[in-house]
Write a structure and sequence with these properties.
The structure holds 2 protein chains of 2 kinds.
Chain A lengths: L5 H4 L12 H13 L5 E5 L6 H13 L13 H7 L6 E5 L6 H11 L9 E6 L6 H12 L5 E7 L7 H4 L3 E4 L5 H14 L6 H10 L4 H14 L6 H8 L4 H13 L2 H13 L4 H19 L4 H4 L4 H11 L4 H20 L5 H12 L13 H4 L8 H4 L21 H4 L4 H8 L4 H9 L3 H14 L7 H6 L2 E7 L2 E6 L2 H8 L1 H15 L4 E6 L8 H4 L5 H9 L19
Parallel strand pairs in A: 1-4, 1-5, 2-3, 3-4, 7-8
Antiparallel strand pairs in A: 6-7
Helix pairs in contact in A: 3-4, 5-6, 8-9, 9-10, 9-11, 12-13, 12-14, 12-16, 13-18, 14-16, 14-17, 17-18, 24-27
Chain B lengths: L1 E5 L3 H14 L8 E5 L5 H9 L8 E6 L1 H7 L1 H10 L7 E7 L6 H11 L4 E5 L6 H10 L6 E2 L1 H10 L3 H14 L5 E2 L1 H7 L1 H5 L1 H10 L3 H10 L5 H23 L4 H7 L7 H13 L2 H19 L5 H16 L3
Parallel strand pairs in B: 1-4, 1-5, 2-3, 3-4, 6-7
The chains are: A alpha/beta, B alpha/beta.
Chain lengths: 567, 324
Amino acid sequence: MSRVVLYNKWRPQAFADVVGQEPTVRTLQNSLASGQVAHAYIFAGPRGSGKTSLARILAKALNCLQGVQPEPCGKCDACTDIVEGRFLDLVELDAASNRGIEDIRDLRERVNFAPVSGRYKFYLIDEVHQLTPEASNALLKTLEEPPDHAVFVLATTEIHRVLPTILSRCQRFDFRRIPVRSLVGRLQEIAEAEKVAAETEALNILARMAGGSARDAVSLFDQAIIYAEDGVSAAAVREMLGLAHTAVVAEFVDTLARRDTKEGLRVLSQAADQGLDMRQFARETIRYLRGTLLHKSGMEAAELLEMSEEEAALMDGLAERISLSEIVQAIRLFSEAEQALRLGVFPQLPVELALVEFCAKDESPSASPAPMPASRQTAPTSPPQAAPQSAPPASATAAGTPPADATNTADATETSSDPSAAATKTTELPPSATAAAEAADTPLAEIQQRWDAVVDSFRRPNVHLRGVLRDCTPIAVQDRVLTLEFAHAWHRDQVRQPDNLILVEKAIAQTIGRHFSVECTLVQRDSPASAYEKDPAHDPVVRKAQQLFPGTTTYENADEESLPSAQ
Amino acid sequence: MIRCYIGHSKGTVEAEVAKIIAEGEGIADLNRVVLDGDVIDMETLQVHCDTLPFLGGAKLVIVRGLLSRCLKEKPLREGLLAYLPGLPEHCTLVLADDALPRGRETTALTKALRDLPGATVDTADQRRGRPQVSWIEENAPRFGCGISHRAAEHLAAVLPDRDTIEQELTKLAHYRNRTGTISEEDVHLLVPQSRESNIFAFVDAVADGRRRQALALLHDLPNQEPGYVLVMIARQFRLVLKAKHALRSEQAPNEVARAIGLTRAPQRAVNRVISQARRFSVDQLAAIHAHIARTDFAIKRSRLDPATALDLLVVGLCSIASRP
């Protein structure tokens, strides 16, 4: 005999069973009690938050044979028919697969028929944002003035994709992610009813992993029951999910704070030996770091991320030993590692690399300066020669990772209690950038002068851009928009790709010390006004020749006619 | 008898109609007709109005949207104005419409209607701000409970029109079980637009480099689907950048509203954008946009967990904003 999965068996059947949506439940129950039910509702919220379940309960309450009441009896024919999915007056439409105008026309025709056995004809349109614009418009009139016997409930996970004209015709309820506490309570109820022994810590882990979705939580619990034969213990749940114990993650993050590569590698190796899923380990590390980031920013991180008291206490200690910019840097590195783990052959390697890279980095936040106008970066609070000396250019960071962005300078705001320190940090700037900024008279001249440095700043994995950028010349700067002229369309298109464009803009900002937006154009070969022809010094070939043979250069135009014939 | 309701919410018109029914004698269900002004022609309207009531002494004909159509269609307007003086006594005609556009034709039409014998034209006060707050306070009892002044102000500030306000008042009244007073907390808890308006406060917090507050507001934004939250943040900063450009070209505040495409938004929202534009430099706004774009890429390419990406974004934006 087939087994009914728990999330189906324990789907809420009454308003009292719904967890985490108290304001919505209370409002609906009061409207049922007063007999003033709206003709159209829209339930919006993340998956597994109870939208469809609540809609079905509402359908039961409206059609219950005991009369319209704040809680359906759950026993009458109407209630049981709805539970078993054979109530003729409950029409469920999946707008993801019935999204066309024909489906809605069909619905409009049927809506005028009186209910077969119930009091109300109840239409539940799930994923309503998937309807085509035409179908949505066709639904408008019906929603505005439906017959008295019809009630519509539209459910969506993406409310911003629903037409405003539909929204204005419905009473809207926003469902929230279900808090871990409520999910744990629900799981405990199920465990008791199913006569399954379950540790509270195990339920906590399951609820946390469900990410606010009751369906996911019950599903995971179902899996855990099958996985752990002798009751659901925290250890079994961790083993099933490949999760590390909080203490292990805390120990690992602590090695990051101390920049202790050797110890960090040992913790990682131990975790791998225990059979922990490295991807999950990276995720747990990120989650832990994120908690520390929020905690350090003065937020109630434990409450926001629904962490255990143990985790909160560990995070508290860590927050004092790690700076905000280090946290940001670590999150980025481990996120990249987590992504690399999806494709990698060696499951431990990306995490190890992230650890080594993090520990190898210079602690100074100026190791990755954000794009800033040079004039601002050379603020008078710090002697210009002092800070830059210790600050290697961002492009020289270990392992050739792309230069970090503005978040890496977060320490500038972190130490707001010490304004002088904050000011000192913001003044740090690569020396080359300062010199260049002072040397050049115009932005274009400055960029042209430092263009080779911009091109050379590209390292793996973006080294291909170096070759592509060699094919172009900065030809104009206007309103902070830098125009690059390319000789080949393919090269131009490469740089135009949004990701590459950001990298190029970042490299320019880091080398020049000011942010420029980049526009790419192609050399107009037929046009005599081409930049190379106007000024041959822009031509990459000429530039290379000048580098090889320094000295005064004279340009002579060799007309095609004056060239020796091929013959 | 002719009753015109212009710019009133659906609920208000329904309440007025209920009064007419209560006052009038013998307007039974069979003698009530609701017509769609968008499609009806004069001939059909005349038939409905002229037909004698069935087993009763009076008839009620409600037409929605006919007046706005009359403004666009001259023959229809002329036909209506020619017919109305001869409206049979047994018929009460209710013409309900959304707010009509301002202009000479609207004035002429409403004047002509007012001049008809036995006609009343009730135009709703469409001004936002204080009149809207007063309207909410006056009308809340209609939904079964009172409302605190702060809650009314909050609703008036975040909701676009009276129909939406009525929807939300209905919901709030049910939440309070139609007793007591709707509080500002109730509004914050149940009205999604209330938390959406936090985007302004969020941008303010970013502008001041108040990281803690910015993070708190971010986590309080409704429907925390990260893509959507990012769109909200990006839109707001794009408006600020546009306003910055408009201000640099020395445009007056009302011209700024046009330049940034917020002509239909309340003046308060426009002023807020302008004040935010004054607090950021162009460089900061450029860096902020670049940062938002990077976050977008990181989320879409699964380089960062969306929620973490948003937290990092806030930290980064505050860092940019707190630079001199």
